[in-house]
């Protein structure tokens, strides 16, 4: 298996060969596997690496390149002589062989190939925990799109930033207050290579920022058949500020964030051009890359087009997905802020300052109005979409002033409801169950409802065994993780050990894990402390697992976590409730697989989509959710539980109603149904709901359906 012909292929082949030289001959194929993240969603991939040295695999964070480099020669020689390991390696290599033919997806009306692909631009990508360039749902969605594009054979390249420090890590003190810290990542230890030019020198591009031409280089990371190109300005050619631009994801300094947007948008276009890639479509996933419009406008002008025709060319090949119905997520900047950082970019684009600013305003003629990336992206795209049906409605209302006097219902913003990459998120017990009953190649047919029909015939005992195994595996992992978290923050030994004594793999487990923003309303779970404690310590107890990180500047969200910690001394809480620090892909995968119930309590209509519930649903976990984001499209009364999604200006009254509704459902239906067992100890009614959840969520909320929606409805130009 060699690298594809995408730019950087020669560099990737060289890195693979160098890593293979460090391995005994029978293990040389491990180098090919290590440099492509397809192993991470291929059955047996993680298990194979972990079997080589479980402790070292954990210490390396699942990074196969670093893992192999640190592996002792004695152990490698032992594995090379192990016939059983050789068989498992051969099987994995066959599964991830990218030379296998795949039915390639081509968007109607588009001529796609490796030189003219879909260019997917996003500020973050959650491909794997060992590549720490993500913070939350936006990155998880972006990673899933690249993986699904690979599985479907869609010609796509990803463009992002190689953050040297990534997103912050979280530590909670004994009072429940969040503290942040950052750790540096050395890209040379990742499955990544620097893209070189025809002379073998690192390929370079530059972007005018402030009074400096900031120089960048390009790293290539392979996500199956899709190359992800990550731009990096940490180079000696740049000054200290220029080097810092690609240091942290969602940097708090507003000027640095603007500089990041310039590197991603303008630098992304220039890097692709330098590599000989001429995208058929630019897909802007959120507004962070919107500045690419100015660079492409300048290209069009240099080709001889007049002003209006140049903008039409930009729009004709741009699509934009907005993910944010929250005002704070669509930040704006004053004219002074923008011009101080990006004034030289306006000049190099051949646009005067006023037009540069006006294209980012809702009301272009209002010079007192700040500018933002979202209005710029909307104006620069021929297609704009939200990420759920309800979010599409919210986005049409939110951005109607951009299209005035067009009525809200006629605003040209559609929706493509998000989906999740099933092979990445389904845990081994459920994957094995579905492979047996749906056929081993079922993920390729995941969007077809007929694929899921055999779920109705899975015997209760098999389904319950898979769910019990997933819960047991998770509880084993949570016990160790929670004890370490508590000891690290200085809790007493009795409190630290309570999770080991009390967390029970046979107890109904409810999970709440997501980015901690105030509108997510995690605090509703403890808003009625008396009822919560009664559920935790009753004759049929439940247990709660929480995880999430608040933005470093969001003190209100941090106070929510602190409020939750105020109950840690109450009877029954220490052993039945665990807050898992430093929420990331690893924590998410365990929780969405092993919980019995997945909770989501956003304040409507502020949830754009909410993909964690989809991931849980694919694992046979039942959703209890406010009818916002994706859940109104999924809920049918037989596949989970719902709380009203009405909008209410009286937020305090709404919080009280939703808190009461949550506990009513838990007390009257969720807990009783879980414990309602037949003579064989099986919860028949519960398992019937699990089947309905799998059959309704599986085909409609998988990434296969989502990417096909983009291919058929968004990427082709409208005739």
In short:
With 719 residues, the chain is α/β, with parallel strands linked by helices. 44% of the residues lie in helices and 13% in strands.
Describe this structure in words.
By secondary structure, the protein is of the alpha/beta class. It folds into three domains: 9-95, no CATH class; 118-164 and 194-418 and 709-714, Rossmann fold, CATH 3.40.50; 422-701, Glycogen Phosphorylase B (Rossmann fold, 3-Layer(aba) Sandwich). It is built from 29 helices and 20 strands. Strands 1, 2, 5, 6, 7, 8, 9, 10, 13 and 14 form a ten-stranded mixed beta sheet that branches. The protein has a six-stranded parallel beta sheet with strand order 17-16-15-18-19-20, sandwiched between helices.
Classify the fold: give the CATH topology of the largest domain.
Rossmann fold
List low-pLDDT spans. none
Query: What's the quaternary structure here?
Result: single chain
Tell me the name of the CATH homologous superfamily of the largest domain.
Glycogen Phosphorylase B
Mean of pLDDT: 94
- H/I helix tally: 29
Task: Give the key terms.
719 residues; ten-stranded mixed β-sheet; Rossmann fold; six-stranded parallel β-sheet; 44% helix; 29 helices; 13% strand; alpha/beta; 3 domains; single chain
Fold blueprint:
Elements: H1 9-21, H2 29-34, H3 45-52, H4 54-59, H5 64-70, H6 73-80, H7 83-95, E1 118-121, H8 137-152, E2 156-161, E3 169-172, E4 178-181, E5 193-194, E6 204-209, E7 212-223, E8 226-232, H9 240-244, H10 254-274, E9 281-285, H11 292-302, H12 307-316, E10 318-321, E11 332-333, H13 335-348, H14 353-358, E12 371-372, H15 373-379, E13 383-386, H16 389-398, E14 413-415, H17 422-425, H18 428-438, H19 460-488, H20 493-502, E15 508-513, H21 529-537, E16 542-547, H22 555-565, H23 573-576, E17 577-580, H24 585-594, E18 597-600, H25 612-618, E19 622-626, H26 631-634, E20 640-643, H27 651-675, H28 684-700, H29 703-714
Parallel strand pairs: 1-2, 1-9, 2-8, 9-10, 10-13, 13-14, 15-16, 15-18, 16-17, 18-19, 19-20
Antiparallel strand pairs: 3-4, 5-7, 6-7, 7-8, 11-12
Helix pairs in contact: 8-29, 10-11, 10-13, 11-12, 18-19, 19-20, 19-24, 24-25
């Amino acid at each position: 298996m060699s690298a594809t012909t995408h730019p950087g292929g020669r560099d990737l082949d060289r890195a693979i060969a160098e890593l293979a030289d460090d391995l005994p001959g029978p293990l040389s194929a491990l180098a090919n596997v290590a440099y492509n993240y397809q192993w991470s969603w291929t059955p047996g991939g993680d298990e194979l690496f972990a079997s080589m040295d479980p402790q070292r695999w954990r210490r390396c964070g699942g990074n196969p390149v670093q893992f192999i480099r640190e592996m002792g020669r004695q152990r490698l020689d032992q594995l090379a002589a192990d016939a059983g390991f050789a068989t498992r390696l051969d099987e994995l290599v066959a599964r991830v062989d990218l030379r296998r033919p795949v039915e390639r997806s081509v968007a109607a009306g588009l001529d796609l190939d490796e030189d003219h692909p879909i260019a997917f631009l996003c500020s973050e990508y959650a491909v794997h925990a060992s590549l720490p360039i993500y913070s939350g749902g936006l990155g998880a969605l972006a990673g899933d799109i690249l993986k699904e594009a690979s599985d479907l054979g869609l010609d796509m390249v990803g463009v992002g930033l190689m953050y040297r420090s990534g997103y912050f890590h979280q530590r909670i003190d004994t009072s429940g207050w969040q503290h942040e810290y950052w750790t540096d990542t050395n890209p040379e230890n990742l499955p990544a290579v620097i893209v070189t030019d025809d002379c073998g020198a690192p390929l370079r591009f530059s972007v005018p920022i402030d009074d400096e031409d900031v120089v960048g280089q390009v790293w290539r990371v392979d996500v199956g058949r899709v190359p992800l190109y990550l731009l990096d300005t940490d180079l000696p050619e740049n000054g200290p500020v220029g080097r810092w631009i690609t240091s942290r994801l969602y940097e708090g300094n507003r000027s640095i964030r603007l500089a990041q947007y310039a590197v991603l948008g303008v630098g992304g276009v220039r890097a692709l051009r330098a590599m000989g890639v001429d995208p058929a479509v630019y897909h802007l996933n959120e507004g962070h890359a919107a500045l690419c419009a100015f660079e492409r406008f300048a290209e069009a002008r240099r080709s001889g087009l007049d002003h209006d025709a140049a903008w039409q060319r930009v729009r004709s090949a741009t699509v934009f997905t907005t993910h944010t119905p929250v005002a704070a997520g669509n930040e704006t900047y004053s004219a002074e802020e923008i011009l101080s950082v990006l004034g030289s970019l306006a000049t190099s684009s051949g646009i005067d300052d006023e037009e540069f600013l006006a294209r980012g305003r809702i009301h272009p003629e209002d010079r007192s109005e700040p500018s933002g990336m979202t209005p710029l992206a909307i104006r620069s795209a021929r297609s704009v979409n939200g990420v759920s049906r309800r979010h599409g409605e919210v986005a049409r209302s939110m951005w109607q002033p951009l299209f005035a006097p067009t009525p809200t219902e006629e605003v040209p913003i559609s929706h493509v409801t998000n989906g999740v990459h099933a092979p990445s998120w389904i845990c081994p017990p459920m994957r094995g169950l579905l492979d047996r009953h749906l056929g081993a190649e079922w993920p390729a047919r995941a969007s077809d409802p007929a694929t899921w029909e055999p779920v109705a015939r899975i015997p209760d005992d098999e389904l319950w065994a898979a769910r019990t195994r997933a819960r047991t595996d998770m509880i084993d992992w949570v016990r160790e993780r929670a004890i370490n978290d508590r000891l690290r923050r200085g809790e007493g030994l009795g409190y630290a050990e309570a999770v080991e004594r009390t967390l029970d793999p046979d107890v109904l487990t409810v999970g709440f894990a997501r980015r901690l923003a105030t509108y997510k309303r995690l605090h509703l779970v403890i808003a009625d402390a008396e009822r919560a404690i009664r559920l935790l310590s009753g004759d049929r107890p439940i247990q709660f697992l929480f995880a999430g990180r608040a933005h470093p500047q969001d003190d209100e969200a941090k106070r929510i976590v602190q409020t939750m910690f105020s109950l840690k001394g109450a009877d029954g809480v220490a052993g039945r409730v665990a807050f898992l620090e430093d929420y990331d892909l690893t924590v998410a995968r365990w929780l969405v697989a092993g919980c019995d119930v997945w909770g989501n309590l956003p304040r409507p209509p502020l949830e754009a989509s909410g993909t964690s519930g989809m991931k849980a649903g694919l694992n046979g976990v039942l959703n209890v959710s406010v009818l916002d984001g994706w859940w109104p499209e999924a809920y049918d009364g037989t596949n989970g539980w719902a709380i009203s999604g009405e909008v209410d200006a009286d937020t305090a009254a709404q919080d009280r109603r939703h808190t009461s509704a949550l506990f009513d459902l838990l007390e009257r239906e969720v807990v009783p149904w879980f414990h309602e067992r037949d003579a064989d100890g099986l919860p028949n009614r519960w398992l019937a709901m699990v089947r309905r959840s799998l059959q309704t969520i599986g085909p409609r909320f998988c990434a296969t359906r989502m990417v096909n929606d983009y291919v058929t409805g968004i990427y082709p130009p409208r005739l």
